[in-house]
Amino acid sequence: MSDKFDLCIIGGGPAGFAGAVRALDLGKHVCIVEADEIGGTGVMWGALSSKTLWELAKDYDIAAKVDRGYRSAGLIVDYAAVRNTVIQAVKEKQYQMLSQLETYSPLRWKGPGSITFKRGRGTFLSRERIEVTNGDGGKEEIRADFFLICTGSKPRDFPHITVDQKQILNSDGILNLKEFPKRLVIIGAGIVGCEYATIFSNFDQTKVFLVDHLERIIPFEDEDVSRFVSTNLKKNNVDIFHSAILRSINTRPDHLEVILDFDDGHSEVVEADAALISIGRTPNLGGLNLDRIGLTTDDLGFLACDENCLVKDNIYAAGDVTRHPALVNIAETEARYAVKHMFNAIRWPLRYSNMSTVMFFKPAVAAVGLNEQTCRKKKIPYRVAVYSNALVTRAIAMQATDGFVKIIVSDDDRQMLLGMRAAGPQASTTIMSIALLMDQEKGINDVLKSVHPHPTMSENIQECLRVLLGKSVYKPHAFPDYIQIRKWHPESEETV
Questions:
Q1: Taking the domain 363-495, which CATH number applies?
Q2: 10 Å Cβ neighbour count for 138?
């Protein structure tokens, strides 16, 4: 005997939860199958937990400042209390999700639609059926018209390195630390590695070493953005090893020996109390028996989807199992869109160009759309302006002038918004104004019809765009360190 649903979602993280609720909105009966914790990585070990930790670290860093006319005396930090605060934040969100699932369960909700939550591991029997195995080994069969795979991802393993989640950890095991390590080596200088370097250095209890296998960190961003992040990490007393590869980690009675090999042929040994492996993530697709239903993965192990998140026939996928960036907002958007597509409720196409992201460094860096290196790769002529927060009244008042706005527009008569990068206070908020206008395919002149309130951080957007038109309040010639403007054309292959 098996239960029959309109939709079965495998995975109860942000994507699975968002997809289930959207199907409920459409009056559908949904089943969520989750093998571990509701909320998945996005809640349990990823975005929520790490950003709670980042907020606490930022607060400590602000409290420790001595350049604002006051100082906190006797400032101490208790890692156990910090850890408990993070855990409580995670539980709060998790129980919000569980409460809603229970509210709309068939036992309490009489429709339209319903959400059934089953704990267990799902595996395909056919394209219409899965078998769910619970923690006690019990099995049941679930049938559905559609399936949405939202099983997320897991930290990528480093060859020949055993992660014990005690001394050698990945991002899933950060909360296993019992105290601040005196010395922490982070392997990998992508977003996650740089965020944790920021967090631990902000608390000022840990000496952080960041290992980058390339010549610069955050390599997918432009060199000026990468340099900005790197400079601020160094100001925070983070040592960065560039062009370095981890050879081995040797466990000693009271410390770790981390051996690094460099491109120039030399090697170094770094002594540490803990090591964090942060070299990316891999999709969680093991155990689904995809081959049984004729599905294969690409060369990197991801599911190939079309523009509607459709894998094949009645099987959809969303979130980290696809090849798109592993971000909660993208995962949720994909899942919601997939549900609308399978039930013929599409109103507009799924677009990734206006999806913004925030990198939680010191200060935070927000991004949307194209950067310069992507424009050059795509042979798109562009103009770009960079406007420093040092010229923004609100930033001066906040004593937070370390940051900028960088806006790229097409170098043609329309001057269409192509992308933006923002660093500093409220970057995550200011980025959305440009993301919205990009979605509406607006150009510079459309944006400047609006006048920003004063004094606010969003005024740096206004002035950055005025720079591109030669109408800014402050001029590049007067402030060459604070304002830059340049353009690029594929014909010349030069930035001027």
A1: 3.30.390.30
A2: 9
